[in-house]
Amino acid sequence: MKRLLLVFILFLPVLKTVAENGYDCWLRYTPVENKQLLQTYKQAISAIQFPGTTEILQAARKELMKGLNRILQSNVALTNDPASANLILGAAMLPTDIKASLKSELAKAGTEGFVISSQSIHQRKCIVIAANTDVGVLYGVFHFLRLLQTRQPVNSLQVLSVPRLKLRLLNHWDNLNRTVERGYAGFSIWNWHTLPDYIDQRYIDYARANASIGINGCVLTNVNANATVLTRAYLEKVKALANTFRPYGIKVYLSARFSAPVEIGGLKTADPLDGAVKQWWTDKMNEIYSLIPDFGGFIVKANSEGQPGPQNYGRTHADGANMLADAIAPHHGIIMWRAFVYSNEVPDDRHKQAFSEFVPLDGKFRDNVMVQVKNGAIDFMPREPFHPLFGAMPKTPLMMEFQVTQEYLGQGTHLVYLAPLFKECLDSDTWSKGKGSTVAKVIDGSLDNHELSGLAGVANIGNDIDWTGHPFGQANWYALGRLSWDHALSSEQIAEEWIRMSFNNDIDFVKAVKKMMLSSREIMVKYMNPVGLHHIMATGHHYGPAPWVSNLQRPEWNPAYYHKADSMGIGFNRTVTGSNALGQYKPEAAKLWEDIVTCDEKYLLWFHRVPWDHTMKSGRTLWDELCYQYNNGVDSVRWMQNVWEKQKSKIDEQRYHQVNMLLNIQEKEAVWWRNACLLYFQTFSKRPIPANYEKPDQTLEYYEQLKFPFAPGN
Ligand code: GCV
After folding, report:
1. Residue 304 Cα: closest atom of ligand 1
2. How many whole angstroms from 544 Cα to the centroid of ligand 1?
3. For a pocket test of ligand 1, which of 171, 179, 182 has the largest count of ligand atoms closer than 8 A to its C-beta?
4. Any bridge partners for residue 253, and if so which?
């Protein structure tokens, strides 16, 4: 019996079937498998000098020790003796000789950056993690742990890493009743009922995960805001979260309901120019900062999709934003004012409306206002050209808003790695100041010399055990953070880091999964929105295809408004002969898309109305190309299933099985998108689906009558 037990214990660590539920995300700190590498790591890191008692340094030290003890499978010693230490960390308390030797690097590190440097100190090889601030040290610790987790050599390190953006945020669209708008991973992680007294370990682990990728702020509440969060009882709860996140360098922000002075303040108006309204907000800011001295500020969705705003009182967006900005300025907070506006009373192409409303306001916002712009002008579609506001408001710091939650990209069940989508937008050239005026340079402030800069992602996090529901959803959270730290990182590098840390360092596994991830966004575009189609999803919950919808009250809510299919062709003419949305771009940027013949075909139907028999670059007609792309998309999901099946022996059974089931759903839904869209568009094209493709196994009527009254996230 004893021997049996021994055999069992001996083999336990190598069993691949040990279940992993994904809770630890990319901070699993698995032991180094390779004995030689383990030896080098152990030699390099045997005694650590890491003084300091601030809460941030304590958090950093705790993380470092936890990570090292697991990765190196031994208890690494902390020491106060500089003569024996070979890993030395610190900011203010860094020994002066080390500080002096890193002077020029530290001069560049700023308030959040860090230096990791291999040094020879008193004839001994040492690794130094240094920064000007405690939070810089924390980021340095996470970077160092990442090097070890991804099994990088550490014998000759010279790293200087500085975030390119000041504000690196997650926007939670979480409601106070714990439902999450467009959330597909359960309910909100904020348990408002048990706050402020109960601090769930999840809050701490959330902060750790965020800090590890450089995120330094989170908006706790939905932009479709509820004024209740501004009442004293709720502010106490917000304070508890702020206290929990502070050791990890994370500030809290809230969404502001513009009509709060009426709803919870008892005023008759929320007019931003009214003295009593201004006073109400000033008092509210004072109250908030008395509780949370480092409160970050507010995000505001105003006069958009039914939300109240300054226009209710005949005032402009700038009037509204500036009133809040003035009230928060004494506390150094900021206002993030969203540019996601469109109105059914404006007869113009929805694509153009934000630009038309906001460009005239350029230069009219206070210094502590940022205008937050979605990556594209419609709404987080699988593929959109960059928003024309980027580069068009040089006097205003513009902040990027990406959507990490996959509202229009397969929601909680499709494996779609979003870094390529984020990068596509960031790398787009606005030409606003000549060639190379990329969106990235607009938002990092370098193009127009702005002090404030930022990027936010609408979070995909919920209370599911693995945070994001789909194990690969974590990769998108990870990518958002890494790109907000450094938008020059490649999608490939980010994917590789994430795979190695979240699964393992097996070279073949990393290679196969990386390939699948890097292809996944393009594959999803093919089976959902090929050739520039957009906004053809179902109404309300946005789950599944419904290009046939054309009876909704507001024209721009109808898919038919966007594809405009008829017997002649399909697509939205946004050229000069149509809505001329293209006219909002600089001519050099518009050039990519303005001519139907040379237009980048990924955007063809976005900008052009195209006859069904138009010859595509492939030589196929447009109709045949649509058939090809939809089918190729489905085939490629099958390829992804195949890639994943081959990884069975490489990872834990639980996550293997989970992803397997999710890929099965993705395959089914890709077929659904293909069949529904092709059958519907065929009613206009009147052309056959070429015989070499699978025939739809259901009728159009079948797809049209499908209903999902309880689809999540709505
Ligand atoms: C928070 C889209 C979504 C809405 C969301 C809105 C926005 O319209 O479907 O759920 O509301 O964008 O970004 O404000």
Report:
1. 14
2. 17
3. 182
4. 219, 297
Mean pLDDT of the chain: 96
Alpha helix stretches (DSSP H) within 45-130 = 55-71, 96-101, 103-109
Instruction: Give residue 11's identity as a one-letter amino acid code.
Output: F
Fold of 32-161: Chitobiase; domain 2 (3.30.379)
Q: Is 223 in the pocket of ligand 1 (CB under 6 A)?
A: yes
Q: Is the pLDDT of residue 4 over 90?
A: no
Q: What is the percent of the chain where pLDDT is above 70?
A: 97
Closest ligand 1 atom number to CA of residue 542: 9
pTM score, two decimals? 0.97
Determine the residue of 305, 381, 460 to mutate for testing ligand 1's pocket, defined as the one with the most ligand atoms within 8 A of the Cβ atom: 305
Query: Is a pLDDT exceeding 60 seen at residue 16?
Result: no
The whole-angstrom separation of Cα 272 and Cα 545 is 41
CATH topology of domain 167-502: TIM Barrel (3.20.20)
Rounded CA gap, 149 and 409, in Å?
Answer: 30
Question: For residue range 603-616, what is the model confidence (pLDDT) as tens digits?
Answer: 999 999 999 999 99
Give yes or no for residue 670 having a pLDDT over 70: yes
Interval 174-209: pLDDT, tens: 999 999 999 999 999 999 999 999 999 999 999 999
Specify the CATH superfamily of domain 526-572+609-704.
Alpha-glucuronidase, C-terminal domain (3.90.1330.10)
| Total residues found in the chain within this entry | 714
Q: Which atom of ligand 1 lies closest to the CA of 374?
A: 13
Shortest-distance atom of ligand 1 to CA 458: 13
Q: Encode pLDDT of 671-709 as tens digits.
A: 999 999 999 999 999 999 999 999 999 999 999 999 999
182 in contact with ligand 1, CB cutoff 6 A:
yes
Kindly state if the Cβ of 301 falls inside 6 Å of ligand 1: yes
Q: Break the chain into its structural domains and give their ranges.
A: 32-161, 167-502, 526-572+609-704
Give the residue numbers annotated as catalytic, written as ranges: 305, 379, 407
3-state secondary structure 115-160: EEEEEEECCEEEEEEECCCHHHHHHHHHHHHHHHHCCCCCCCCEEE
Q: How far, in Å, from the CA of 180 to the mean position of ligand 1?
A: 12
